Amino acid sequence: MTHGLGFRSPDGCSRLAVTDLDGLLSAVRFALIRIQCRPELVDGCLGRGLLDHQPALIPNPDNSHFPGKRKELQRCDAAHVASRERRERCLGGMTDTKQSAVLITGANKGLGHEAARRLGKLGWKVFLGSRDEDRGREAAEKLAADGIDVVLVPLDVTSEESVAAAEELVRTHTDRLDVLINNAGAPGHAIHPAQATVAEVHAVYDTNVYGPIRVTHAFLPLLQAADHPRVVMVSSAGGAFSVVTDPEQPVSKMHELAYSSSKAALNMLTIRYAQAFPGIKFNAATPGEVANHTFAATDMNNNMGRLTVTEGTDSIVRLALLDPDGPSGTFTDRLGPIPW
Ligand SMILES: NC(=O)c1ccc[n+]([C@@H]2O[C@H](COP(=O)([O-])OP(=O)(O)OC[C@H]3O[C@@H](n4cnc5c(N)ncnc54)[C@H](OP(=O)(O)O)[C@@H]3O)[C@@H](O)[C@H]2O)c1
């Protein structure tokens, strides 16, 4: 009996034909590391997320950051040999004729833009959210010039109308959304609590707390139409009680009210959503390394961070690429899970 296996991603992985089960299993492994795939796709095929060249995460020869991945590959190899389509879907989209789709809010610059680039390089369809259409168009054109399948989505997370229009637009391009990354964030003002007013705090909450609620609520039906939906909440170590109460952490000495409390609220939202929707993975990421007191250089911090945007997006991309048996309701930084 001849088994045909097609690897027809947008990146042009090869098509193979083999004649028995052993041959098929070898061919699957061979195809996943074949140079016909672009290097980014090979990373995606094998590790689902150890992308680019991140030495801190790459000491991972046994795939320990993705303990479920090898198991999943074996399960897919064994269970779906008879159905090419089901097997490809089992592998999670990298070799799928159906592209994975992601919406990222605030993706015109900084970490959102870098997450868009990294997932786009894996062959994903990227819906690039930007509250300013011109800035968004410029950012989308940059990604398109890099070969990424990108759609600009005008999206201000503080506006119900804008979120509704964004959902309508995305729906014209896809009948499902595999991943939503609630990334857009407002820093507020680093002012002493004595100076903080409800108006100042409200503006930050409108973006950092109500924004993710608006967007998540609007996109739930599209997420629920996906086989394996994931939502990544881009939070902050500043929203972790464990960090803010640690005298060794610089943030414990910084007086501020709006931003840290908004991210603490976002963390609780993540848990409550995860509990309410067992079929959708909700996880929170902080872009830095808590143990090393580091964060990523972006406009939000006047580019004072020690990490690059690529390093800063490691936790975000990892959660976006979670396996079907991956966790939900967790909080993680670049180095792994962290206490709330
Ligand atoms: N950098 C870090 O190490 C770090 C650490 C902890 C947490 N974070 C979080 O990471 C996320 C991304 O921040 P970043 O560091 O990449 O900062 P950034 O470069 O300043 O990017 C922030 C993004 O959010 C967008 N945005 C702000 N308000 C918005 C709204 N109402 N609707 C839609 N988009 C809006 C901005 O759009 P405009 O260009 O139009 O302003 C921009 O695209 C934020 O949630 C932030 O809190 C970052």
What does this structure look like?
The chain is α/β, with parallel strands linked by helices. The protein folds into two domains: 3-90, no CATH class; 101-337, Rossmann fold. The protein has helices at 21-32, 39-47, 67-79, 84-90, 110-121, 133-145, 160-173, 198-224, 241-244, 258-276, 309-312, 314-320, and strands at 3-6, 15-18, 101-104, 125-130, 149-154, 179-182, 230-234, 281-285, 331-333, 336-337. It has an eight-stranded mixed sheet, sandwiched between helices. Helix 6 links the parallel strand 4 (125-130) and strand 5. Helix 8 (198-224) packs parallel to helix 10. It is globular. The relative contact order is 0.11. The model is unreliable at 1-97 (pLDDT under 50). The structure holds NADP nicotinamide-adenine-dinucleotide phosphate. The site of NADP nicotinamide-adenine-dinucleotide phosphate (NAP) has 32 residues, from helix 5.
Put the structure in a nutshell.
The chain has 340 residues and is α/β, with parallel strands linked by helices. Helix content is 41%, strand content 13%.
Task: List the main descriptive attributes of the protein structure presented here.
two-stranded antiparallel sheet; Rossmann fold; eight-stranded mixed sheet; 340 residues; 2 domains; binds NADP nicotinamide-adenine-dinucleotide phosphate; alpha/beta; disordered N terminus
